[in-house]
């Protein structure tokens, strides 16, 4: 059985990595006697639409074109910023007979006949809604904390001089910009220059490439 791994973290800095997700999913794949043929890793905000997650889009397309049997993710929330997006993604997998394993929920989407159980739609809707509510609660607490900080005289935002200038970005990411100008895809540039796909995507948009 062929499988791929999709791992995502929200921070685009080195503060978070996908290492643990990938390692845990590889362990599961070995236990379930699956062959992991490719690993897709992405650093992008959980608030982004799926269309703004280039690696996720690539992973889903790879599943379809390469006849992948199973998509492995750490949790259901990796597949969308809200319940509607998650369910849309899952529906696409069901239509294409691609199974899905979610480690946190310990749930597999399809049975041996590649059909979802009668309880799957209800469970998926409940899980994705709970994940969305959890994100909204976190956002509320963060905003509340910021407001209290400002009310006490605190200042938000970067320190003066901490924002990189265009010229500095051109110098620092010259290899990335050169590769983009050559017409390479975001994923190809990310691999070639050892830069995160989200950074490449941001530079592509910022420099209109």
UniProtKB/TrEMBL annotation:
Top-level taxon in the UniProt lineage: Bacteria
SMART domains: Resolvase
Pfam families: Resolvase
PROSITE patterns cross-referenced by the UniProt entry: RECOMBINASES_3
Stretches assigned to the Resolvase/invertase-type recombinase catalytic domain: 2-153
TM segment ranges: none
MF (Gene Ontology): DNA binding; DNA strand exchange activity
InterPro entries in UniProt: Resolv_N, Resolvase-like_N_sf, SSR_resolvase
Protein name per its UniProtKB record: DNA resolvase
